[in-house]
């Protein structure tokens, strides 16, 4: 069962007792006022500014994710210029490149915390990089907020209260695919391609547990390393299984390679399920839209390519402000939309924080109750609390048709449908 998180009130009381005298940031006014906020950390935040640091693979094998901070920065630039920042504080967002290398992520985290003096690490991307940095962030008592990885440990662990995820976790995502197969292909044989690290093992492991007791069988599995030049050999091996379904658990570069390899093999025609983090239009386009018809994935935020949202107020605002504040970035790239959505989520977390302090942010993200973010799908909200450190746990299936993804079915609240995760 899930490990219990410390309640918001208890954390605030502990922070006041433990952090007295640790006002490090030179903030004035509310950040250093009396009451429950007294003595809490104000490094990186003043009455007029907030400094955040993000770590992304701007280079290397996962560089496609480098589009995410463009969407984040566009949101913050818009809020700074037109909304007087967040609570009157202008946001400075400092981005570092770790090349998807965990040792480099640690180096950049230290630079952001110790040299840049950021208020929080807002997004470290990738399970390996976040795993490498969360001990450091928690030892320094620096919020590591809405990390860009769906590993289940960010929500179940109680040893790292300063770190929390945002997107649906990989085990819950795997459960959704398993449920889909139970309904549509109850006797399916499945071949699995997965990244050989915590990310791949988390989603693949969740899928194997979700199909226990059913007629669905994993008949072949192949892993790859992020340093591999190609997954073509793995795909050839998987094709020999003649499985009905392939579960593609990859990051963008390898997801595109796997889809291309599948398209080339005319003797094998499995249902192709690709995990959310490799389902962007930027992954599919190089393969050719004709070659990815009918593939299945899941999502939880609005797709800028979906005409369903053509007249949606938030989508119209997003596209308008992307054009203004990120003129070189294509607003139809979903990774930009992801960035916008997670930045808006941070905005909500700061607005609901009892204290404009590091402790206040830590406690706010662990005590969210039905927080709506306009770029999330209707019915998807952020909810956390004691024993539940998973902000978003709802998603909807989608199928690629024509030149875009089409949603189908209903939004699935995995908390209600599948029960709590097991630790």
From TrEMBL:
- The residue ranges of the Leucine-binding protein domain are 49-401
Specify the species.
Nonomuraea longispora
Q: Does the keyword Nucleus apply?
A: no
| UniProt-recorded name of the protein | Branched-chain amino acid ABC transporter substrate-binding protein
Q: Which family is it part of? A: Belongs to the leucine-binding protein family.
Residues of the signal peptide: 1-20
Q: Which InterPro entries match?
A: Leu-bd (IPR028081), Peripla_BP_I (IPR028082)
Keyword annotations from UniProtKB, A to Z: Signal
